[in-house]
Amino acid sequence: MDNKFFQNIEKKTGVNMKEVFELANSLQNANFQDEKTVRNVIRRVSQIAKKKVDKETEDKIVNSIVSNGKKLDFNTIANMINKK
To answer: What Pfam family is a match, any one (predicted)?
Structure first.
């Protein structure tokens, strides 16, 4: 994909693609059974998406991922944040 494609995404969404790629790289070797790691990822996604996540929603997401072994990726967390 070329830079223009990502620039268009940034323009339409306001999301910095460099930050998204950095997050995606950090997820590759992360331990998603660790509550602290999952909370940090949720907070990072929240920052990138410019969407505040309250404590109750964060707890639900963490529980879903850590306890139920739910797959963790940017889309999963973004969808959970948008459901609140």
So the answer is: SpoVIF
